[in-house]
């Protein structure tokens, strides 16, 4: 009897960008991802330049010359490849990792990336963004082990109750 391999898609949760905002304590940008099927949210702190690249695409702002993520999209297109999904795939030492999934002809290619770059590219390809269940489990476990359960709950409630003014226009 043959055993079917586990489909990685089954272990991934589809998310959408709920907002892009500044951390009120550190003034660092945060991309807030929200599970499309529940109220679960995941904040990911990102760099200023990456946040700007995400904001430009969220706001559909045209630039006079291609920005880095536009260049990557154009290169993939030039190589007859398409980005069909990105996955926030790992969390190690408080650092998130992502994978960009491309199709080039019949071949599937995966590329390691920072989540911020993967998200910026996903927006340009209008493809789905996923977070692996193991990453979500580890973020919950890390908050609990750090004794920050109350703080994690407060952060979760704060993120879930953000309104459009809180997550609206991200300005540099």
From TrEMBL:
It holds the Pfam family BFN_dom. PROSITE patterns: BFN. Signal peptide: none annotated. GO terms for molecular function: nuclease activity. Residues 12-143 form the BFN domain. This is BFN domain-containing protein. It comes from Granulicella tundricola (strain ATCC BAA-1859 / DSM 23138 / MP5ACTX9).
């Amino acid at each position: 009897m043959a055993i079917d391999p586990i489909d990685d898609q089954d272990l991934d949760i589809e998310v959408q960008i709920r907002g892009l905002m500044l951390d009120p304590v550190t003034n660092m940008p945060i991309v807030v991802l929200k599970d499309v099927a529940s109220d679960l949210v995941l904040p990911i702190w990102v760099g200023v330049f990456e946040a700007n690249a995400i904001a430009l695409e969220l706001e559909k702002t045209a630039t006079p010359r291609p920005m880095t993520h536009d260049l990557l999209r154009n290169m993939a297109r030039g190589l007859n490849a398409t980005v069909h999904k990105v996955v926030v795939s790992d969390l190690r030492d408080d650092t998130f990792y992502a994978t960009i999934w491309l199709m080039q002809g019949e071949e599937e290619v995966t590329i390691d990336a920072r989540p911020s770059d993967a998200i910026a590219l996903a927006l340009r390809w209008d493809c789905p963004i996923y977070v692996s269940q193991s990453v979500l489990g580890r973020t919950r476990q890390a908050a609990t082990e750090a004794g920050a359960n109350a703080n994690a709950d407060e952060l979760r409630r704060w993120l879930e109750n953000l309104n459009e003014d809180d997550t609206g226009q991200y300005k540099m």
